[in-house]
Amino acid sequence: MRDYIHVEDLAAAHVLALEALEQCSPTAAYNLGSGRGYSVLEVIKAAEKVTGQKVPYRFGPRRPGDPAVLVADAGKVRERLGWVPAYDDLERIIYSAWQWERKRSGH
Questions:
Q1: Which pLDDT band, with edges at 50, 70 and 90, does 107 fall under?
Q2: Residue 2 forms beta bridges with which residues?
Q3: What's the CATH architecture for 7-105?
Q4: CB neighbourhood size of 95 (10 A)
Q5: What percent of the chain is predicted at pLDDT more than 70?
């Protein structure tokens, strides 16, 4: 299980952090994420749904040292900077990335 974040949400959080620094706010470290975890299989199924294409996959063992669940608690950045992800749904994240890729590749 992993917490996925859209690149635009990531960039927006960085802009807010820079603006806070310009206002002489103290530096801080923030976790960024939606607070929701998705399995790799859920990501694959969402990608298939969004793109209409089959994604080949096979099951394998977890990598050594890889945590079973890694989900962000973005409460601190929400409280201090007012950041909330605009893309809070996995299918929306994938749809946006898919549209970008299609434009980039000319399809």
A1: confident
A2: 38, 70
A3: Alpha-Beta Complex (3.90)
A4: 17
A5: 100
Q: What residue spans define the domains of the chain?
A: 7-105
The Cβ-side half-sphere exposure at 34, using a 13 Å CA radius, reads 19
- Closest Cα to residue 90, out of 28, 25, 31, 42? 42
pLDDT at 89 over 80: yes
- State the average pLDDT over residues 13-35: 94
Structure token pair of residue 43: 């990501």
Q: How far is CA 41 from CA 10, 24, 59, 66, in A?
A: 23, 44, 9, 16
Token pair listed for 14: 């960085």
Q: What's the mean per-residue pLDDT of the chain? A: 95
Element (H, E) at 68: none
What are φ and ψ of residue 82, in 5° steps? 75, 20
